[in-house]
Fold:
Amino acid sequence: MQVTCPNCGARYAVDPLAIGPTGRTVQCARCSHRWRERPIAPAAVVPPPPRPIPDFVIRPPTYNSGLPALATPPPKARWGQWLSIAGLAVVVLVIAAYIFRGEILAALPPEWHDFLHIDALRALFRQ
Ligand SMILES: [Zn+2]
Structure:
């Protein structure tokens, strides 16, 4: 429903349910004037028992916004999860390569044995 401030003429789009069946005191966001806003039509159907509704401040509508937009949360970045999985896979591969180093060396051609042997690596750092 359309609500117009009687003081400054500012107009607001307000959900009729927010006004309630008995009306409600509203406050203009532009001039802070407060007045009692009546519902559009008196409740001809079975009126629900009136409950006290707290006052609220209404804001002027922004462009192309009849209702508040539902903000979708940004997609969560999963880089940390993928990096930890990749790191775990590398650790498992290194452990498996160390455990099965004998089988791996037996499967490789003989000229690779000196290159891949752990003593060859140690010799690089001895000097
Ligand atoms: Zn006003």
The pocket of zinc ion is lined by residues 5, 7-8, 10, 28, 30-31, 33 (CB under 6 Å). The beta strands are 2-4, 11-13, 24-28, 34-37, 56-58.
